[in-house]
Structures are given as structure tokens and as C-alpha cells.
Amino acid sequence: MTKNFENFPVYIKSLDLIEKVYSFLEGKNFQKEFEFNNQIKRASFSISNNIAEGSEYNNNRQFIKYLKIAKGSCAEVRSMMIVSKRLKLGDENKAEEIINLSREISSNISNFIKYLKENIERT
């Protein structure tokens, strides 16, 4: 990879997702939801961290592995937002924004994986 991960649009979006998650968790209903807070923070960090870590291998096969993990973490964030809506824990509009952004990131990651697969180094 010739580009730094910091410049990948999908990485930048993953940072936006973390900010939205933190904003969502500021609600009073989350003051005692330590496990929920910890898990969704870990899942959202996992997206950006796996994009960053995978990019450093300079190997498309390895990068794809880490992008798939990041994609799974997108699903985890969405699942937790769905649970929060069902339990009426937070602002439904913010939850929906997070769900939509995680879907967008997941789709971007899928496209990135497709691109990398088409350009796998011959070994």
C-alpha cells in the first residue's frame, strides 16, 4: 500500500463513527450501563484500529484479513444500536445515524476488499 491509512476515506469515516458513539453515550441512561458502554466503544475502536493495523503489513492478503475483522465490528456496532433502540436507552435519531454510518463504512470496506482482491500480488 502506498497510501497512509490516515488518508483512507473509510478510516476517516470510522473516526466519525467513534465520535458519534461517544456523543450517543453521553445520555443519562448510559451512566450505569458500564458493560454496554465498554463493548460498543471497543467495537467502534476495532473498526479504525483494524484498518490501521492491516494497512501496515504492506500485503493485500493480510490487509483483507484485517478489513474483514473491521467489517465484523461494524455489524457489532449496528447490533448494539438496535439493542439500545429496543431498550429505549438513548436518542433514537442518534442511534439511527450510527446504524447508517456503520452500514456505509461496511459497504466501503467491502468495496476496498474487492479492490484489494483484484490487485493481489502474485507470489
Automatic annotation (TrEMBL):
| Highest rank taxon of the organism | Bacteria
Q: Output the CDD domains linked to this UniProt entry.
A: 23S_rRNA_IVP_like (cd16377)
Q: Which residues form a coiled coil?
A: none
Please name one Pfam family that this protein belongs to.
23S_rRNA_IVP
Protein name (database record): Four helix bundle protein
Q: Which InterPro entries match?
A: 23S_rRNA-intervening_sequence (IPR012657), 23S_rRNA_IVS_sf (IPR036583)
Instruction: Look up and give the organism this protein is from.
Output: Chryseobacterium defluvii
